[in-house]
User: Fold this.
Amino acid sequence: MSNYEYIIASLPYLTRDFNYSDGVDFDKVVAEIRESLPGKDASKLDFFLKSFQPEVLSPEFYTEALGERNSFLREFFRFDLLLRNAKVRFLNRELGREEDKDVLKGEWGEFEEQAKVESILNGQDLLGREKGLDDLYWEKIDSLSLFHYFDLTAVLAYLAKLHIVDRWLRLDEEKGRELFRKLVDEVRGSFKGVQYTDK
Assistant:
């Protein structure tokens, strides 16, 4: 079994109700992955995790991300940037500000999901908007990790989804648990040769 087969097979060790019991949290999951991660990919993991700190999301960060050789990192961050810019423009219009104020400018390419984002942001329910945007992220992660089962992309996709789950556990515990069950089922489905047991 390769390192990545071992990592992917080990990921769903958390309980199905996912309450971060016994000292387990997002950082603990990352630490366990890092222990088995091939050294050459550790820097890619660190770069990806750095994006969870809003203060680092500068034009320089995105320029570096869009120059990544890893296609998942490159396309995930292009999507992330364009979605964030769409949110800023929407808020600017709502507040009567100049539409491009505080938008990160650059040659980022066309945003194919623009219409979907606009539709979600025009919803009246705040949690509904958040769920809709996270659903778009989830779909994008799925599309970028399609046919990646035992490699760095599979690990990064898992962590991207787990980060969404983690956020919802803080916002809405029931929704967070539902998303985690979905994530566990997806990972189990990609590694059918391994027997899993729920704690």
